[in-house]
Design brief:
There is one protein chain. By secondary structure, this protein is mainly α. The chain has 2 domains: 52 residues, no CATH class; 173 residues, dinb family like domain (Four Helix Bundle (Hemerythrin (Met), subunit A), Up-down Bundle), CATH 1.20.120.450. The protein is built from 7 helices and 6 strands; from the N terminus they run E-E-E-E-H-H-H-H-H-H-E-E-H.
Length: 257
Amino acid sequence: MAGVRLRGMGDFMQAGDSQRVEFVDADLRGARFVRADLSGMVMRSVQVGGAEIDSPWLLEGDDVLLVNGVDVTPFVDAELNRRFPGRAERRAADPEGLRAAWAALERAWGGTLERAAGMPAGSVDVSVDGEWSFAQTLRHLVMATDVWLRRAILGVEQPFHPIGQPNAEYETDGNDMSVFATVTPSYDEVLAVRAERVGMVREFLEGVTVEELATVRSHPWAPEYPETTLSCLHTILEEEWEHHRYAVRDLDTIEGR
């Protein structure tokens, strides 16, 4: 099945079997699982050389990832913190810590933007393995800021800048897409709007108080699940660091070519 793109498990299940699927002596080399739920998956006596797992939710809650009986999540978290100085502060819980966390994030992105600017023309628009290009990643972070700062925290009625890049879930959940651009903006336009949104977060953090961090907000996608200002800010920081990791990964690939 080399090169197969798996979109679901329907083709592999018997009618009425919605709980368990077994692959025995199956050749899944090169298979790709995208937006798939593999929680609780068990693999026994498998060849996993060159396998890659990328899950931004790996370190949330009580989730574990066992490899030969060892939970590797603490090692993954520590290594990512080593590779990306400042990432460890993303869960800061007080105003001063949040300001320091955002400053570290800005430094990280600043270096990556300089790196992208020094690459051959067009590199920022290259997609690696069907993922967002560097420019699209920046556009998505514009949207993330609009969702979690402008909409959830500030309560702006129409918070979205039209160059924002919606994620797949937003596109498929019946949301109004008319607010977003139907044409691709120039990279200079993307940089300008991105810098503006980064400045908005910085400005908000400069004046945020302990009391305001505890203020209850409406979840932008699911109002029945309340958030706080602090949890919204943590989501922004998580989005920023995860997409920075993706961007660095793909720039490495582009340079390697």
